[in-house]
Design brief:
Layout (H helix, E strand, L loop, with lengths): L4 E3 L2 H12 L27 E7 L10 E6 L10 E6 L6 E6 L5 E6 L5 E5 L8 E6 L2 H5 L1 E10 L2 E9 L8 E6 L4 E6 L13 E4 L4 E4 L5 H4 L3 H5 L11 E6 L4 E7 L4 E6 L8 E5 L4 E7 L5 E8 L9 E6 L5 E6 L4 E6 L7 E7 L7 E3 L5 E5 L16 E7 L4 E8 L7 E8 L10 H4 L3 H4 L3
Length: about 450
């Protein structure tokens, strides 16, 4: 396969290669909290705060996108309350956020304005501070819609959704350093069965690979959902592939056919597992990636989510710390579904609960006892009228039932549409770095 790489200068290319190759000898530790990178220190006890990346809505409060901080420690006097709001002063279709490799910074992207925001969440976790706004993402890369942010040693890997040529789904993978400087970008493969589309990414250092999925371009994700589903040509413009990459060389190893827009991807970090999972939004399938007896990566459709004819629209997923369970949210019916993944090739749905008229993101604590839900999918795709609920809800999970602990109505609080979440601890000194991070050479500690 061809793989186009553009680098700012050779020294950065070398530094990146060294950083990634250092992972080969590492042993993975679980990095759940829904979707943390395996290089991010984990909160294995009670999380103190949750950050909610929130889309501004015209006429609601100041109408701007925001980073909202909620106190989620039951011992706190402000438990279940909003304790800080940081307005961005405009709307850009904010979407996902990602933690840095030291958990001291939070990166967030806007799918329409293409801005990337870097927040200091280490100095005072309860009051994040905007320290950098990257405005030349499109000029540096030719890509549009920075989506997922996945920490690497001294780096941040970003997966955009679109391109600046035709605003379609062909895109790539981008790397910045922790200072917010552009390092390199790589095109999604179009040969070997590839369609060039991208969406999410997840890393498995033990196997020196990362996995990417695919979605759709700006022309679709900024269109009204009702209009789009009636547009036959638009409905053809969704990704049908996922790609396994070599993390050291940043080159694609294999393209998989996973029709129907595979979205979030997650690895089981249970020792010895080395399998990954995704769900396809349009075909309502669970797909599992695993090596065969010859070491070749294979993918298999292992289960169906709900009734595909009703287009339940599977969206976010969250895998448990032991890899034995997974939450799947279906947007259209507002339902969360718990699946037994003890045998990933034969998963079983064991629990369902309607969270609201619509539900999108799900984040569970490391111990799996607390599960958080938010509602917004995309500004133009959320439901209309009374069904346009916008909330954060937290439930306690005992393995049998979800029991509501608290909820915050984001419209009532004049905040907007609640989307992605990340946890934080007030005292970062309590967080231990992962084994793989502590084994990195001194060169990487300098985070060039």
């Amino acid at each position: 396969m061809k793989n186009t790489m553009h680098v700012k200068n050779p020294a950065r290319k070398i530094a990146l290669t060294i950083a990634v190759s250092a992972t080969l000898a590492a042993t993975p530790a679980f990095a759940d909290e829904t979707s943390c990178s395996p290089y991010t220190p984990l909160i294995k006890g009670q999380e103190d705060l949750v950050y909610v990346w929130t889309l501004g809505v015209k006429g609601v409060g100041d109408g701007s996108d925001k980073l909202v901080t909620v106190d989620v420690n039951p011992k706190s006097k402000t438990y279940g309350k909003i304790i800080h709001k940081l307005s961005l002063g405009g709307r850009g279709e904010v979407h996902h956020v990602g933690l840095s490799d030291d958990r001291r910074y939070l990166w967030g992207g806007a799918l329409d304005s293409n801005k990337i925001y870097v927040f200091d969440i280490g100095t005072n976790p309860a009051k994040p501070k905007l320290t950098k706004t990257i405005t030349d993402f499109v000029q540096k890369t030719g890509f549009v819609g920075p989506h997922s942010f996945i920490a690497m040693p001294g780096r941040m890997m970003i997966t955009p959704l679109s391109n600046n040529k035709d605003h379609g789904g062909e895109t790539g993978v981008v790397v910045y350093n922790n200072k917010g400087d552009y390092v390199a970008h790589h095109a999604m493969p179009k040969d070997g069965g590839g369609d060039g589309y991208g969406y999410d990414a997840a890393i498995n250092p033990a196997k020196n690979v990362f996995l990417t999925s695919s979605f759709t371009g700006w022309n679709n994700y900024m269109m009204d959902l009702g209009k789009m589903v009636k547009d036959g040509e638009a409905m053809k413009r969704f990704g049908n592939t996922s790609v396994m990459w070599d993390m050291k060389t940043m080159k694609p190893l294999k393209v998989f056919q996973t029709p129907g827009a595979p979205l979030e991807v997650r690895w089981s970090w249970k020792a010895g597992d080395n399998w990954a999972v995704t769900t396809t939004a349009l075909t309502s399938k669970i797909w599992v990636y695993k090596q065969d007896a010859k070491g070749e990566w294979q993918v298999k459709d292992v289960a169906t989510i709900g009734d595909p004819a009703k287009i339940p629209l599977p969206v976010d997923i969250s895998i448990t710390a032991d890899g034995r369970g997974m939450w799947i949210n279906t947007f259209m019916d507002g339902t969360t579904r718990y699946w037994d993944m003890s045998d990933p090739m034969k998963p079983k749905e064991t629990f369902t609960k309607q969270i609201g008229s619509q539900v999108n993101m799900v984040s569970q604590s490391f111990d799996g006892k607390r599960v958080y839900f938010t509602t917004s999918l995309l500004g133009n795709w959320d439901k209309k009228g009374k069904d346009d609920e916008q909330f954060l809800k937290m439930y306690n999970w005992d393995g049998k039932d979800l029991k509501l602990a608290f909820e915050i109505d984001f419209y009532k609080e004049k905040l907007g549409r609640a989307h992605h979440m990340k946890f934080q601890a007030r005292d970062l000194s309590t967080l231990k770095p992962l084994d793989m991070a502590s084994n990195l050479p001194a060169l990487l500690a300098q985070k060039q």
